[in-house]
Structure formats: structure tokens, C-alpha cells
Amino acid sequence: MNIGVSGRMALRIALAWIALVLGTPAMAADTGIEVGGTGVATAAPDLARVHLAVRREGPDAVAVKEAVDEVAAKVIALAREFEVPAADLTAAAVSLYPRYAPEGNGTVVDGVIAERTFVVTLRDLDLLSRFVDTALQRGINGVQGIHLDVSTRAALESTALERAIDAARAEAARVAERFGVALGPLIAATSLEQSAPRPFLRMEAMAASAPDSFAPGELEIRRSVTARFAIAPR
User: Fold this and answer.
1) Which residues contact 231 (CB under 8 A, 6 or more apart)?
2) Is 99 exposed, middle or buried, given 0-12, 13-18 or 19+ CB atoms closer than 10 A?
3) pLDDT digits (tens, 9 = 90+) for 135-161
4) pTM, to two decimals
5) Range(s) of the domain holding residue 87
6) Domain limit, last residue, from 146, 168, 198
7) Which residue numbers in the chain have pLDDT < 70?
8) Contact 198, 232 (CB under 8 A)
9) Which of residues 146, 178, 196 is at a domain's end?
10) Sign of the alpha-carbon dihedral angle for 168, 169, 172, 177
11) CA-based diameter of the chain, in Å?
12) How many domains does the chain divide into?
């Protein structure tokens, strides 16, 4: 027998009502009015995490590493020029691995490749374009991504959660009213964090926009809850 969504909801409410009348808590624990709610909070991004990379290669491992270290020193100095706190700059260790070249039917090691990555958090988006341009001028040869975020993320997540709870409670009240029953106390609830993708800014988009026309838009944070309420006698 195929029971639709409204039919299943009616069946749950009927079972809960029977459990309430018969006084069987074990049955009531698995019944009731079950609903979901989603809350959304939005804000304009006010910071950017810039992922940079430097890559050098050559026949001599020492020379290649020194070249990467030289660029790394310039990136660290650049961060200081832009007044980036030490906590907002992450510099990974240098990675070294062999470079291969074709030879006959196979390959042979003919040098070394060195790479190092950096993550710089800029808390003034007006500086973003100039920072990236200057980093490229000083030897960075890879911008792996620019992720926009908000400094008040924790507060926004709390707001989104409160709105999700309010939405679930309102939905439960509407369901109870339409079925002609009274809404009882909360039986169980689950909070689900919806990790919405953070805005990713492409270098092409930055290059195509004038510095004074850059608009990061808004960041959306979502939280969801599921809740089950008992049915109370009227």
C-alpha cells in the first residue's frame, strides 16, 4: 500500500493520539509531530583568504630551494607592509621532489622541483587586488584561490540556528492546528550544519573589474533542525 507524505503524517499523529490515550510511553516516544526548519543569515564578506604558491625548478636542489626561500621572504615582507598580523599568515614548509624528463622508452631524473604555499588573510577587501598584484610582481607564480568570508561567522551561525528553531516550531504549530490537535512538549531535536560553499573569487573576475567596482556580494550561512513534538490532550 502506497501512503503519501500527508498520509504518513496523519498516521503518525493518529498513533501518537492512541498512545496518549492508552498511556503507552514506549509507543509515544516514536510518534508525534515531526518537522524540519531551516534558518538563513547573510552578511557581506569582510575578509579574504588568499592562497598563494611559488614554484621553482632546476638541476641543483640547493639553488632551487634558495630561489623559493627568496620569494618566501618577499611574501612575508609584503604581508608586513600590508599590516597583516602574524596569526593571519601561514607559510607551509618547502616541498622538494624530482623532476623527470623523457629518455628513450622511459624517463630519467634531470632536476628538482621546489614548491611552497602561503595563506594570507586580508581583513580589508579594498587591499585585495593590490596585494595579489604585488605578490605576483615579487615572484609568486600561482594564486590557488581567494576565499571570501566574514569575521562574524560564529554570530551568524547562531542567528541562523535560532531562525531554524523558530521555523520548526512554527511548522509544528501549523501542522497541529490543521489536524485539530494540540501541540505538546518537544520530544527530540537534531541540529544540522549546512556548510554552504564559501564564495570563491577567480583572478579573471578581479582582473576584469576596476578596483573601485569590485563587489563581493553576500555570504549566506544556513542551519537546519529536525524536531519531534508530542501531541497534547485538548
Assistant:
1) 13, 16, 17, 20, 31, 32, 33, 176, 181, 182, 183, 184
2) middle
3) 999 999 999 999 999 999 999 999 999
4) 0.71
5) 47-146
6) 146
7) 1-30, 194-215
8) no
9) 146
10) negative
11) 88
12) 2
